Amino acid sequence: MSYQLRRTNTNSVTSTISGINPYTNSGDQNMIQTQFYENKDFYLSAFLMASGLDLVEHRRQGPISVFRFIKNSKLINLVDQYYTDSGEVKPMRYSTYIRTLKSILHNALSESKSENNYVKQNQKGNLSRG
Fold first, then answer.
1. Which 3-state string (H, E, C) describes 63-125?
2. Tally of structural domains, the chain
3. Does 70 map to a domain?
4. By the number of CB atoms within 10 A of the CB, which of 27, 47, 57, 67 ranks highest?
């Protein structure tokens, strides 16, 4: 599974997972739109991933990260387990997904900063396109 960054506007960077369309169940256009669960809890997202769920999308809304998963009964049960402290994941698997999410956040933030620097320099007239 690979993670890719795409820019949605100058203040928002979105990470998507290749092979998963976050807007439909599959390539079939006749299927109804998939329902999603979005959260801003970094450690919950790592827990969900360590429990076997796929992160469909990550996006930044200003300084806040939003994580998107496909909403289903397994996800609802896992969220309940997380918040009632009854969930179980292997510690090394959990720490791996914490590092994975940190990498995704760092890449999105770096991408956002480099775009902002370009925009600032271009607005000052320090860069010219020839």
1. CEEEEEEECCHHHHHHHHHHHCCCCCCCHHHHHHHHHHHHHHHHHHHHHHHHHHHHHHHHHHC
2. 1
3. yes
4. 67
